[in-house]
Amino acid sequence: MAVDDNTREFDPEIVTDFRERMSYGSYLDLDTLLSAQNPVSVPEHHDELLFIIQHQTTELWLKLVLHELESARDLLRADDLPPALKRIARVKHIQRTLTEQWSVLATLTPTEYAEFRGFLGNSSGFQSYQYRAVEFVLGNKNRRMLSVFESDPAAHALLAKLLDEPSTYDEFLRYLHRAGFPIPASVLDRDVTEAWTLAPELVPVFRDIYENASDNWAEYEACEELVDLEDNFQLWRFRHLKTVQRTIGMKTGTGGSTGVSFLQKALELTFFPELFAVRTEIGAPR
Fold it and tell me: Does the predicted model carry a pTM greater than 0.70?
């Protein structure tokens, strides 16, 4: 059907009366969502809305990332690998969106940010409990982080719970054990409240999986999905660092950190070190 006068006619069945029907806005609770952006600068600075929306949308995506990773962990516990990998694949797409999002914040110049930065007080992305929850569920745990959230009982309780639970990687290794791979008892019985560190005894296990991929295709694919996930996480961290450096240089962070140098240290953190260490061994003489 042609469009006349650059105006599209309504289809006759389009619903327009929402007095007794659920609308798009009511389903998404848009009144609440769109009223949650409250700049604090006085006078209100134009660019503060960008800063708020950037961080709010990040928190929404982190909520979904956590939802997917916890589900993947539970599916691995139930030996249901295919849907667990589907959850991880979705997280990878979310990570790409989160990484690209830094390019929007990077349009905020140092001069523009300085106009309202002083109004932020000590608020800082370092205090994102959902970000810490994602790190915890991936295995990069740090009990000291709980102290940041003592004034927020719900956040503190969530992180304490995740601290005490096996990570997604723990459950993957337990899955491999049940599937017949020789995962050492020291790994299976480890203290899951501690940050994961390189377990050299796992490297030969992964080498056998990689060098016999056709016989271990599901496990081989799972390893590569986890490598992708960590790669994406590191790219997000790097873009964060470069955006901060571009915007505030070497100033200290609003939350009290050293800023760029503190973020630089995060690039040394790892989730699945054996999956990277094994690359040195693959194809080498035994």
Answer: yes
